[in-house]
User: Which sequence fits this backbone?
């Protein structure tokens, strides 16, 4: 079950609540002042692997208009995915 963020405009309290997706747009009661609170737009985080060496390979391929590996002469190798 997903966690949704809510905001109470009465007391400016932000809180989270577990709810089924089918009920995600329903207002909930603010736990602080007991008034109706609306669902807030949540921010999210996207994480990347710690090893970013693949980025330099992607930049080289983009700047050269294509890339071929050492085992072939094609600029679009189906063997290595380049």
Assistant:
């Amino acid at each position: 079950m997903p966690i949704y963020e809510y905001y109470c405009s009465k007391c400016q309290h932000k809180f989270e609540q577990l709810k089924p997706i089918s009920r995600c747009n329903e207002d909930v009661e603010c736990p602080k002042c007991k008034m109706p609170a609306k669902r807030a737009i949540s921010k999210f985080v996207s994480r990347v692997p710690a090893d970013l060496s693949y980025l330099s390979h992607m930049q080289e391929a983009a700047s050269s208009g294509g890339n071929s590996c050492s085992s072939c002469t094609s600029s679009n190798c189906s063997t290595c995915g380049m």
